[in-house]
Design goal:
2 domains; 3 helices; 11 strands; single chain; alpha+beta; 29% strand; Arc Repressor Mutant, subunit A; Umud Fragment, subunit A
Amino acid sequence: MSTLSPKQLELLAFIQQFMQTHELPPTRGEIAQGLGLKNRQGIDQHLRALEAKGAIELRPGISRGIRVRETRDKEIAGLPLLGRIAAGSPILAVSNIEDRVIVDAALFRPRANFILRVRGDSMKDADILDKDLLAVHQTSQARNGQIVVARIGDEATVKYYRRNGNTVRLEAANPAYRPIEVDLDAQEFSIEGLAVGVIRTGLNRAR
């Protein structure tokens, strides 16, 4: 399958999650609501691009005529969905796994290892909204400016990462939240992964 653009990836992930939840494909209207899009013609263009790249099959004249094609990299068991992360436990500990999401890990670059349920609006200006599903690539390394899942002591958070010497600054994408300053000499800190994609799950959500 050809490489997908970020918008095509978001659309495909939404279709897959919608089908898992509702057991049928979404209509164009449901896609527009779910992704906060107003231009239905643009949706059709993205759908045709997904079909041309071998990700889906479109059935003309059918309201829900979208079929997701199987890929050789699809993980049948799905990606683990993490809820509230248990204090002191490894990120992928059984106690943290809420469910599994049937989505192709290879759709994300780099490849996703788990899904995190977003709580709160601290990253809303980065288009990561409350109740979204955040695809995460598990790694302990990050560059300044990347969005990371970080753990400070027993608490995990999603923020922009910036490091200067032995100080880490975790910045929200919402001016209502102050940055978190971490002294690496005095506080326990680790990077659990990089944000690599968002799966929008709710309908009628303000953007």
